[in-house]
What we know:
By secondary structure, the chain is α/β, with parallel strands linked by helices. It has helices at 10-23, 37-52, 70-78, 99-105, 112-125, 147-157, 171-184, 191-201, 205-218, 227-233, 238-250, 254-266, 271-291, 297-304, 308-319, 324-342, 348-359; strands spanning 29-33, 60-64, 87-92, 133-138, 161-165, 188-189, 224-225.
Amino acid sequence: MAAKKTGSDFAANQRQLNEGLAKGEFRRVYLLCGEQAYLRLQNRDKLVKALLGDGDAMNLSRYSGSDVSARDVIDMAQTLPFFADRRVVVIENSGLLNPKSAAKSVTGSKTAAALAEEADRIADFVPQIPDTAAIVLVEENTDKRGRLYKSIAKSQKDGTGLILECTTPEEDDLRAWASGIFRRSGFTIGGRTLALFLSYAGEDMMNIAGEAEKLCCFCLGQREITEQAVKAVCSPRIRDRIFDMIEAIALRDRKKALGIYMDLCALRTAPQVILTLMRRQFGQLVKIRELSGKLPDSEIARQVGLPPFVVTKKYKPALRMYTSEELLDALEECTRADYESKSGKIDAGMAVEMIIVRHSGRV
């Protein structure tokens, strides 16, 4: 799938990767990163299959989590392959490309400092990777200021490495890709139905693929995906439902906002999760307002961690319903309530209801 995302080299690098694999021109190090797990894993599997060639699993080594050892990785990469052209080393979710934030979020026991030390050792080894090995790093988050990222970026310039940032496609590309899933399964889907489906599934490609599979199974024996089927099968994403709740608060529709909250509770969504996501979304709205007019939507989206079309078509219109003071007040209250609920001073569910009632104004 060719995805064009402003400010991203995904399409060009994906094409470069595909052409290289087709010609048998391989790099010594690959970095697959970015928020789209579907694209990361798809390219990981494609790379492993191509790099191994006629070799078997004996020449494949996998490491996962922050307990990865640079010494083990280097030793394995320097070991000659067994009756094959190369040895393939795959490192996943290690946090090596972002040690500070990864120490708390990835599986393993290493501290940020220890993880950074391991990353630096691998960074020093990148220029020395032998022709008989290929290292594939698969990470969601990267710090482009880190030595390991810079080392891989340098190898990309000299043709021995490649960085593929798997970012969210533009809206039109995402729609075309999702439509293709149904078409390949023998279904047709209208434009309105597809828009409804994506409003439920969101922009995460892994989630879209999973929801599409459920929908296709539900519609077996039929030719068309209908809106009724989407509503019957697909589950709206919690984040999107919370945004709908924030919109309802802004429109002073207390009944709708409380109704959405009750629906989320019925789906067994923890009030603490709802409160945390409310705080995050109000924070994103505040930042988008601050940056609007100063930066293009693509750069704003990068800074707040959202796809550009979501910023343009969803968040910016929502800003028209809030004053700056209202946004800051709501963010401050959510932040305070989040802290107090986590410290046991207030019940999270009660905190959410109070915020809804206070900020939705009249009924």
